[in-house]
C-alpha cells in the first residue's frame, strides 16, 4: 500500500509537470483527489490493513494529499502568471512605430468663400434661390432679351444638349424663374455652377461658378445697386476697399456696368495682381431691362430692379492669392489641405 501511495505521488508529480493549461488543473484535481480519485480509492482499502499500519498509512496519505494540494496551488499561480505575461506580450504597443495618418475633412475654398458671400447677403436681407444647370434656351437667352441670332450668343460658347436645351452659361436664367413664381419685393442671390465651352487655361474652365443677385421693388435705383455692392465689397475684401463702376453692355440690364474693387494686394497702388492698374473687376451688374421684367411677368411701370453676377472662382482666387483656376477643380489634397 505504501508503494502504491508513493507511486501515486510520483504519477501525480509527472502529470503536474506536463500540465501547462490552466483549466486542465481541475481534471487533475478530480483524477487524484476527487471522491473517486486515485488517492481516495487507495484509502478505501485501508480496512484490509493490520490496525497498527493504519495510522502510518493514513499519515502518509494525508501528507500526499497536502503535498498535492500545495502543488496544485503552486502550479495555478505559475500558469496564471505565464498567461498574464503572454497577454502583456501579445498586447504590447510599440510606441516607436510610425502612426497612421487620419485626414480630417475640410471645406473646399469655393465653399468657404461662398459661405462668406451668403452670410453677407443674408445680413442684408437677401434670400437664397437656386435654378437648374440643365436649362431651356428660353430662360438662358430668350427671356433675358438675347434673341436667336443676337451677337451676345457667340460670346457665350454654349454647350447645347438639344436645340432648345443647354447647360446654362450664367446664373441669370434663374432671375426669370424666380420672377415667374414670386411677386415683388424680390431680394435674392443665386449661387450655382455654369458652363461654357472655353479652352482650359489658368483663367478659364468649362465649369465655373457664379453668384447672381436680383432685387426688385418699387423705386429701386442705380443708387441702391451701387450702395449694396459697395457694402458687399467692403465686407468681402476689407473696409479699405473702394469700388468703381464702368459702363458696360449686357442685353438684360440697362444701364449696365462692371464693378471693380481696389486691389487688396497693393491697396490700389498697382502691382502684379491687378496688372498695375490698382483695380480688379469682380462683377457685372445693371438695372433690370424693362423687357426682362415683362418676360418675368412684372410690370416695368410699377417696379424696377437691379441685378448683378459675380464669378465665385475669381473672387476665391483673389481672396486666397491662387493664380490658377484649375487648382479649384483638380482636388489635389496637397492643395485643398491648405485652407
Ligand atoms: N450674366 C452676366 C454674365 O454672366 C453677369 C450679369 C448678371 C450682368 C446680372 C448683369 C446682371 O457675365
- The pLDDT mean sits at 93
Sheet bearing the most strands, described? Answer: 7 strands, mixed
Spans of at least 5 consecutive residues whose pLDDT stays below 50 are none
Question: What is the rounded Rg?
Answer: 44 Å
Ligand identities = phenylalanine
Per CATH, the class of the largest domain reads: Alpha Beta
Q: CATH-wise, what's the superfamily of the largest domain?
A: Bira Bifunctional Protein, Domain 2
Corresponding CATH architecture of the largest domain: 2-Layer Sandwich
Structural overview:
The chain has 12 helices and 9 strands. It folds into 2 domains: 2-90, no CATH class; 109-336, BirA Bifunctional Protein, domain 2 (2-Layer Sandwich), CATH 3.30.930.10. It is rod-shaped. It has 339 residues and is α+β, with helices and mostly antiparallel strands. It has helices at 2-18, 24-33, 38-44, 54-90, 109-123, 137-140, 173-181, 222-237, 290-295, 312-320, 327-330, 333-336; strands at residues 127-128, 134-136, 165-167, 186-195, 207-217, 243-250, 253-262, 279-288, 304-311. Helix 1 runs parallel beside helix 4 and helix 5 packs across helix 10. Bound molecules: phenylalanine (PHE). Phenylalanine binds at residues 170, 172, 212, 250, 253, 284-286, 307-309.
Amino acid at each position: 500500500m505504501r508503494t502504491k501511495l508513493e507511486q501515486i505521488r510520483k504519477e501525480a508529480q509527472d502529470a503536474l509537470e506536463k500540465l501547462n493549461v490552466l483549466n486542465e488543473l481541475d481534471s487533475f484535481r478530480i483524477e487524484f483527489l476527487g471522491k473517486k480519485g486515485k488517492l481516495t480509492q487507495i484509502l478505501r482499502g485501508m480496512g484490509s490493513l493490520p490496525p497498527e499500519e493504519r495510522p502510518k498509512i493514513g499519515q502518509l496519505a494525508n501528507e500526499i494529499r497536502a503535498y498535492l494540494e500545495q502543488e496544485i496551488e503552486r502550479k495555478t499561480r505559475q500558469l496564471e502568471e505565464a498567461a498574464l505575461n503572454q497577454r502583456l506580450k501579445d498586447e504590447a504597443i510599440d510606441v516607436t512605430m510610425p502612426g497612421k495618418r487620419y485626414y480630417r475633412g475640410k471645406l473646399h475654398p469655393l465653399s468657404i468663400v461662398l459661405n462668406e458671400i451668403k452670410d453677407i447677403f443674408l445680413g442684408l436681407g437677401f434670400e437664397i434661390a437656386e435654378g437648374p444647370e440643365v436649362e431651356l434656351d428660353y430662360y438662358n437667352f430668350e427671356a433675358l432679351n438675347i434673341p436667336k441670332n443676337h451677337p451676345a450668343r457667340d460670346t457665350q460658347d454654349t454647350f447645347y444638349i438639344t436645340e432648345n436645351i443647354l447647360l446654362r452659361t450664367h446664373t441669370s436664367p434663374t432671375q426669370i424663374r424666380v420672377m415667374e413664381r414670386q411677386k415683388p419685393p424680390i431680394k435674392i442671390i443665386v449661387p450655382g455652377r455654369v458652363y461654357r465651352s472655353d479652352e482650359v487655361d489658368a483663367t478659364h474652365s468649362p465649369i465655373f461658378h457664379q453668384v447672381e443677385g436680383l432685387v426688385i421693388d418699387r423705386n429701386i435705383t442705380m443708387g441702391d445697386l451701387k450702395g449694396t455692392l459697395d457694402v458687399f465689397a467692403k465686407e468681402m475684401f476689407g473696409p479699405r476697399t473702394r469700388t468703381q463702376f464702368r459702363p458696360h453692355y449686357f442685353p438684360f440690364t440697362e444701364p449696365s456696368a462692371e464693378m471693380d474693387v481696389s486691389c487688396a494686394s497693393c491697396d490700389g497702388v498697382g502691382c502684379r495682381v491687378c496688372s498695375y492698374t490698382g483695380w480688379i473687376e469682380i462683377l457685372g451688374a445693371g438695372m433690370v431691362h424693362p423687357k426682362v421684367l415683362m418676360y418675368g411677368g412684372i410690370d416695368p411701370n410699377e417696379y424696377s430692379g437691379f441685378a448683378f453676377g459675380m464669378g465665385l472662382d475669381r473672387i476665391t482666387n483673389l481672396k486666397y492669392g491662387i493664380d490658377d483656376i484649375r487648382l479649384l477643380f483638380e482636388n489635389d489634397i496637397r492643395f485643398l489641405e491648405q485652407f
